[in-house]
């Protein structure tokens, strides 16, 4: 998840925790249920949905959980798992030989290459050599704040010379991945969570809303035809104060910003969304929220728009028929074309 003085809060989740609500659809009474998991993508996953029975709901949410857990393990760059060839294995074999992988890794890389091209290389899963330096500095700084430091710029520049995603060669026929540059490292944190969410829910028949660490997606509107309501909270104020409430039928809401993953060096905060041009945390915006049909696209676009000016962001957004809300460092808001159509009045 990412930041801006905004955080995605699911109003429906808050309501769902208080009990079940019946809906009548074609003569069938549906009840609302909720589930929470802590094992997916190192964050909290919450699901609210309508089903004929708790058993039906639990069966579906277990299916989603199990599929998401597989994606989590496949896309993990820090840990290995018995019987699974994942992205850590791919990184560890960089430049040695093609690695045969699960089709879901092939599909993610090909999807990421599209976003890489369309975003003018702003969203780049091959930026791992740079992001690893920032990750290490952030972890060290959080563990020992008095001795927090910034990554060495010479090391960042050296790492940036090994971030060409075009040198990640995918053989779709043989299900292999090979790095032409042995120093390339993949880091799919900017896109994997939303992509996996989309894949896990796209064939779900019931009406549900899922939040994976704040990345929100819905399968369709509620049984009575009304949309879900998602609150974008102003985090400068107490919980429950919303700057905007947006409606969502089938689609996704993802926010990128500087408030969730950061550390301080000499009193200055440094967040985790790194500009590939400066190799430093991006400074265009405080937060960007994107609404689009596909959760994976929403995840990628929210990062891309956070890394570029509004004019370029609008052009990219138009290619995917999405809408967005930008918030600058002073708290000023800027709406994309069509954003007013998703605001709940």
Task: Characterize the structure shown.
The protein has 345 residues and is α+β, with helices and mostly antiparallel strands. It has a domain at 87-179: T-fold. 30% of the residues lie in helices and 27% in strands. It has 9 helices and 17 strands. The protein has helices at 11-16, 54-74, 87-92, 103-118, 128-143, 153-160, 192-201, 295-306, 310-319, and strands at 6-10, 22-25, 28-40, 43-51, 99-100, 168-171, 176-179, 208-212, 215-218, 228-234, 242-248, 251-257, 262-265, 268-271, 287-292, 323-327, 333-335. The protein has a 9-stranded antiparallel sheet, sandwiched between helices. It has a 3-stranded antiparallel sheet with strand order 1-10-11. β16 and β17 form a beta hairpin.
Q: How many helices in DSSP terms?
A: 9
Strand order of the largest sheet: 2-3-4-8-9-12-15-16-17
Query: Can you identify the CATH class of the domain at 87-179?
Result: Mainly Alpha
* Number of beta-strand segments: 17
CATH superfamily of the domain at 87-179: ApbE-like superfamily
| Run of helices and strands | EHEEEHHEHHHEEHEEEEEEEEHHEE
Distance between the termini: 27 Å
Largest sheet: 9 strands, antiparallel
Mean pLDDT: 89
The CATH architecture of the domain at 87-179: Orthogonal Bundle
- The coarse silhouette is globular
Low-pLDDT residue spans: 1-20
Q: Might you state the CATH topology name of the domain at 87-179?
A: T-fold
